[in-house]
Amino acid sequence: MPKLKVDGIEVEVPQGATVLQACEIAGKEIPRFCYHERLSIAGNCRMCLVEVKPGPPKPQASCALPAADGQEIRTDSAMVKAAREGVMEFLLINHPLDCPICDQGGECDLQDQSVAYGRGISRYDENKRAVTEKYMGPIVKTVMTRCIQCTRCVRFAEEVAGVEEIGAIYRGEDMQITSYLERAVSSELSGNVVDLCPVGALTSKPYAFEARPWELKKTLAIDVMDAVGTNIRLDSRGRQVLRALPRINEDVNEEWAHDKTRHAVDGLVRKRLDRPYVRRDGKLVAVDWDEAFDAIAAVNAGSSVAAIAGDLLDCETMFAAKALVRNMGSSLIEGRQTGMAYDVSNLGAVAFNTTIAGVEQADAILLVGTDLRHEAPLVNTRVRKAIKRGARVFAIGPETDLTYKVEWLGEDLSLLGGLPDRAAEALDAAERPMVIVGPGALKNGHAAALKLATDGNLVRDGWNGFNVVHTAAARMGGLMLGFAQPGGIADIVAANPKLVFFMGADEVDFTAFANSFKVYIGHHGDKGAHHADVILPGASYAEKAGTYVNLEGRVQRGDAAVFAPGDAREDWTILRALSDRLSATLPFDTFQGLRAAMFAEVPALATEGLVRYDWNPPVLDARAEGSVTYPIADFYLTNAICRASPTMQRCSAELVHGQDFAEAAE
Amino acid sequence: MADAPHIPDEAETRARWGNFAWNEKNAEKAREILSRYPAGREQSASIPFLDLAQRQVGEETNTQGWLPVPVIEFVAREIGVAYIRVFEVATFYTMFNLAPVGRYHVQVCGTTPCMLRGSDDVLAACKNRGLAKGKTTPDGLFTLTEVECLGTCANAPMAQINDDNFEDLDYDKTVAILDALARGETPKPGPQIERQASAPEGGPTTLQAMVGENHDYRGEWGSAA
């Protein structure tokens, strides 16, 4: 533990820390462009120069200098000030003065640091260099003349995204950052380079010229595009969410978010359901709320009622739906829309027990039927990190590009019964082995994977190596609230209910409900609305406060950023009003009342943070066979919001279906 | 760059070079190169492989060779790294040609020592011989490039033509060399005046006793003062 002095303040830093980190521990701000905590050290912007004794009599780059015992660092000397001013001046030589038309304006590191550390004037009156724009895909807009060659984007693509498609070509003054042959970057994490870019070289294409950061209202929310529960900040102006940015949460998403999280928000203002509809003579007709409620009451369903929860729901909505169905005398509730019917008698057996951050500690990982890159991209990045630490990764399922080296064992789930020797030995020898079961294997391989975990001693003191990946943000919350029938949705179909509430459920096989009166309560005119007999317009995740439980069982809450459009209401208020009309009045009148009732029923939801499920796996018939098909065919179009989003449609057309947009964009 | 080289468009290069693979001789050589580096460090072979590939392209087109994108990708596949990583290397070094060049790649140094010693005359000779900077002559023989220092300042001005240096040039000597090359002859590389390598003109000015035979100077140390 080296001890050193920073501006006279004595600090002790961990072995291997850099001088820059030591300065931060001492509370000194060090300006930087290329250095980033989560990327490798490049040391090429020179902005972090400090004076170090003992050492050569010149300023040194603190980001690349290991802190050593007895060093004396000065960050406030004349030498340091001159060095920073000099570096700043060089950086600005070729940087255009186009801040007024630059989207980074107001949140630009170069702007901020030139104000704080620059000279205030320029002595340069030669011509500036200009660089042509590079095409990087539908998400990233480039203005490469603004680039200061920090190479953060290059390092991110290689180290975190695992997609080596960005690089620096040519050299010296001609050096340019580009994607390979100026093709679209095929990463689902490409939007992160926009956040990483310290200048306005890489900005967000869908958000171009939309707003200035200071005019946006910032709301803390939770992402619903997958089950990871990415912590996000929704930036809105007026009634529109303009962008979603990740918040730092080391346990969940670090500081990344995938492109769907970031850019599906433009789907929130398209194809919205903004008034109630009733189907008359086969056609949906706009009506007012009373008429819509009358139509539902006219069904006289009695207790023959069911509720099916969609993938994007918050716990409060699901709880209200459950309470309504219960008050009407039924217990038919289900959340696994696509017909999955795995055993949920023990939630530990269907949760991501290792925790997302825990993946990094694993030394042998077996992926079972999971296309992790598209089912949970931010879990995938953790697996990459585990590999960097030396973990071996095996996989059962059709081969697919997960961005890292995987030893594919085969496609058939029967392999779970007898793993090939190399995998079995690696898991046996591992100190922290883990198995990750994806949705593609849950149906036929869940029991066998559980047996593997129990027999293979994957669950041991202080380590639970059994993990299930879900793809729906509502899944764990729904399971905690009991949205699961033993036979899955088939049980509901078998009960043939007169009245079914589809709570934002779009992926259901609606033909099975031909005899039921279908009420769709949701926010987008998608598949569910097309099949509905009555549509009640609800609120999306950006328009209601809600509790979400991610795949590891982490209870998180988000706030409402904007109001739902038109007549749309927060879902629980719809259910509350409807319950009166159906004479099954719900026992809460406020959101707080709803939450209190929910907490009373499921106390685990009352506290934010990780719920510890007991590990008590059911003993099931462990035969497993059949090949795996990954459920996500098109990463960019997995739910109603992204299907309504032009950005996601473009991503899908270009990155999944290979349509060429490169030339049209210029 | 005003004299930006003409790179054929991608469809064209893919059609022509998409099936590029080592020829028999180079395959052997590639194996030998790869064996110099430990397993897991195949990326170290980027530069030798690119050079080998450029030479093979040269052989196949009877020119000095260049690196079409499919050939760069072939090299990347051979050493198992991402295309962009090899592309970065190929664009970084000026020795790799990103556009086709002629039979003879004439690289005239224009950096200060050569300029002071008359590289303008060399370039004028090239110009009058029909060579234009960044362009290949219509007969496909010569490509002229003005380059920065090639480290032969003692013999300035100089030009590198293919793998050989031609030093101590002036207008006439440059024309003579270009003419000889055009006729298919092989002019003598190195200094074009009477001197040994970069030794002084007209013979050595120091250690003269060493010219003919080995001489022990140690007995004379100190006496010169």
TrEMBL record, chain A:
GO terms for molecular function: 2 iron, 2 sulfur cluster binding; 4 iron, 4 sulfur cluster binding; metal ion binding; NADH dehydrogenase (ubiquinone) activity; oxidoreductase activity, acting on NAD(P)H; quinone binding. Coiled coil: none annotated. NDH-1 shuttles electrons from NADH, via FMN and iron-sulfur (Fe-S) centers, to quinones in the respiratory chain. Couples the redox reaction to proton translocation (for every two electrons transferred, four hydrogen ions are translocated across the cytoplasmic membrane), and thus conserves the redox energy in a proton gradient. It is an enzyme of class 7 (translocase). Its cofactor is [2Fe-2S] cluster; [4Fe-4S] cluster. One of its GO terms (cellular component) is membrane. Gene3D superfamilies: 3.10.20.740, 3.30.70.20, 3.40.50.740, Dimethylsulfoxide Reductase, domain 2. GO terms for biological process: ATP synthesis coupled electron transport. Binds 1 [2Fe-2S] cluster per subunit. PROSITE patterns: 2FE2S_FER_2, 4FE4S_HC3, 4FE4S_MOW_BIS_MGD, COMPLEX1_75K_1, COMPLEX1_75K_2, COMPLEX1_75K_3, PROKAR_LIPOPROTEIN. NCBIfam families: NuoG. Belongs to the complex I 75 kDa subunit family. This is NADH-quinone oxidoreductase. Pfam families: Fer2_4, Fer4_NDSU1, Fer4_Nqo3, Molybdopterin, NADH-G_4Fe-4S_3, NADH_dhqG_C. Keywords: 2Fe-2S, 4Fe-4S, Iron, Iron-sulfur, Metal-binding, NAD, Oxidoreductase, Quinone, Translocase. It catalyses: a quinone + NADH + 5 H(+)(in) = a quinol + NAD(+) + 4 H(+)(out). It comes from Sphingomonas desiccabilis. SUPFAM superfamilies: 2Fe-2S ferredoxin-like, 4Fe-4S ferredoxins, Formate dehydrogenase/DMSO reductase, domains 1-3. Its EC number is 7.1.1.-.
From TrEMBL, chain B:
Its cofactor is [2Fe-2S] cluster. GO terms for biological process: inorganic cation transmembrane transport. InterPro entries: NuoE-like, NuoE_dom, NuoE_N, Thioredoxin-like_sf. [2Fe-2S] cluster binds at C109, C114, C149, C153. The keyword Translocase applies. It holds the Pfam family 2Fe-2S_thioredx. Keywords: 2Fe-2S, Iron, Iron-sulfur, Metal-binding, NAD, Translocase. CDD domains: TRX_Fd_NuoE. GO terms for cellular component: catalytic complex; membrane protein complex; organelle envelope; organelle membrane. The keyword Translocase applies. GO terms for molecular function: 2 iron, 2 sulfur cluster binding; active transmembrane transporter activity; inorganic cation transmembrane transporter activity; metal ion binding; monoatomic cation transmembrane transporter activity; NADH dehydrogenase activity. Binds 1 [2Fe-2S] cluster. It catalyses: a quinone + NADH + 5 H(+)(in) = a quinol + NAD(+) + 4 H(+)(out). It comes from the Bacteria. NCBIfam families: nuoE_fam (TIGR01958). PANTHER family: NADH DEHYDROGENASE [UBIQUINONE] FLAVOPROTEIN 2, MITOCHONDRIAL, NADH DEHYDROGENASE UBIQUINONE FLAVOPROTEIN 2, MITOCHONDRIAL. Belongs to the complex I 24 kDa subunit family. This is NAD(P)H-dependent oxidoreductase subunit E. It comes from Sphingomonas desiccabilis.
